Amino acid sequence: MNMHQYRPSGPLARYLTIFMHYLAQYAKIKMAYRWDFFVHIFTEFLQQSVSLIFILIIFSKVPAIQGWTRDQVLFIYGFFLVPFGIYSGFFNHLFDVPEKYVLQGEFDRILLRPINAWYQVVVETMKPELLVSMIVGIIIMIYSGSNMNLVPVWWDIPLAVILVIGAALVYAGVYTFLASLGFWSEGNLGLMPMVYNLSQYGRYPMTIYRGPVRFMLTWILPFAFVGFYPATILMHRYEYLGYALLTPVVGIVCFVIAYRVWAAGIRRYRGTGS
Amino acid sequence: MKLIEARGLTKEFRIFSRSEGVMGAFRDLFHRKYRVLRAVDEIDFAVDRGEMVGYIGANGAGKSTTIKMLTGILVPTAGTVTVNGYVPHKQRESYTKGIGVVFGQRSQLWWDIAVIESFKLLRRIYDVPRADFNRRLQQFDDILGLSSFLNLPVRKLSLGQRMRCDLAAALLHNPAILFLDEPTIGLDVLAKSKIREFLKEINNEFKTTVILTTHDLGDIEALCPRVAIIDQGKMLYDGLVDNLFSQWGQDKLEDIVKRIYMGQKPEPGLAGGGVSLV
């Protein structure tokens, strides 16, 4: 065999090293356009503060909406921002797949490299600076939590980590699924903006929506699990305990289904002419 | 065992034929008409280790589709294919470690980062030990003269420079097989000869098997003792270039190939009839 037999470490370590190298390259490119980079972070902050001001204004008129106080809604929003940060940093640009990768044939290059195709697309298109949303979210959670005299308990932190991972997997699943449609549809279906708007529904209490909307956000495009359900358990309100604990399961199921669709899509990939 | 072995390899594309006009577009919403295009039609193809094979055909003959099936990008509609002990489209991640691919039309390198950074990233992706990497890079630099633009991003390179970088990138992990899809397209004579010289040396030193598609028959004459000719998805000829000359009784490869593309057969009674059109 002409191939080398060199394997210093397991696949996980290799993928991590590759990630770090992509990250370093990304930082180098970004630092070449420093101004761009800071504008990007700044607009992200601005966008979050607009949403924040919106919530604050509403609650300056009414004390509570459907039994949810200002601080509780803020807390849900704060939690929502943490997986949202992961999504914006890593999964948002899966929407490039139909146009940039499939239609223009960039996927050829991806398929010629000996690492997982999905992983390559994610690390090539990531914008890790958008993880700042997580910090904003944590600050909002701490602020609103202390306002409502929330007393933290030991399991809050590990539970929060599990819930955030579950919620991030919901995003990863939905966006992977949408990206995969590009293997069938020739080009972008224009679904991305609509789905993005729906994902934003997840940051309000489900009680403000009508039954069908609530059902859809729970079982079809499960964005209720990226904000509301998991946030309730962390603010120690237990009426949605069952749903909240389902978050990691929903995340895993969502991602596994989407990944299978993705893998089937790759088998259909046909590239461009010549 | 052969390094590359394909039997009855076939690829069909389903092509959506759009109807004309607004009403046609409306009708297409409900009822779509497809026609099936057989881009590659039951070809058999076997290559030994260390061979350099030219793969030629008119535009749209099925060359790239074949290469894409051999490299694991496309899943064949029918037939079997094993390369280097793998089924390319099924064992993609392990298989691609042992091959290098260059598409003349499209760079495999990252557009925005310096060439050397691309190489370093590839070193990680292919798990190449540092010493091997440095040694090979040095060697490629000696022949291809890369050092003057290693620190430029790919988007700033000329086509010739870019092609040299792509070649080096495809060989950094010392693949058993190198697939080249029109590697000399758009290059000037000097750049072409540099690349041919490089390929010869690589083949000679590392016994790298080279499969090369091209429209420039000069590439074939300079590099490949064996040539495969495909047209409309079917293999028209697979054998030595020398046999073509004796079969056709001509001395210009271009004339022979032109006639084959036009569907002509060699006149009978000429010397060297041992190899036939398939």
What would you say this structure looks like, in words?
- The complex is a heterodimer of chains A (274) and B (278).
- Chain A is an all-alpha fold and 274 residues long.
- Helices cover 71% and strands 1% of the residues of chain A.
- Chain A has one domain.
- Chain A has helices at 11-32, 34-61, 70-91, 96-103, 107-111, 117-125, 132-147, 156-185, 192-200, 211-220, 228-234, 241-268, and strands spanning 64-65, 68-69.
- In chain A, β1 and β2 (68-69) form a beta hairpin.
- In chain A, 35% of the residues are buried.
- The model of chain A is unreliable at 1-6 (pLDDT under 50).
- By secondary structure, chain B is α/β, with parallel strands linked by helices.
- Chain B has a single domain (49-261), classed as Rossmann fold (3-Layer(aba) Sandwich).
- The longest helix of chain B is centred in the last third of the chain and has 18 residues, at 189-206.
- Chain B is globular.
- The A-B interface holds A 1-4, 6-8, 14, 17-18, 21-22, 25, 28-29, 105, 107-109, 111-116, 267-271, 273-274 and B 13, 59-60, 64, 68, 71-75, 84-85, 89, 92-99, 101, 103, 105-106, 108, 110, 112-113, 117, 120-121, 124-129, 132, 173-176, 206-208.
Structural key phrases:
heterodimer; A: 274 residues; mainly alpha; two-stranded antiparallel ribbon; disordered N terminus; B: 278 residues; alpha/beta; Rossmann fold; six-stranded mixed β-sheet; three-stranded antiparallel β-sheet; 10 helices; 9 strands
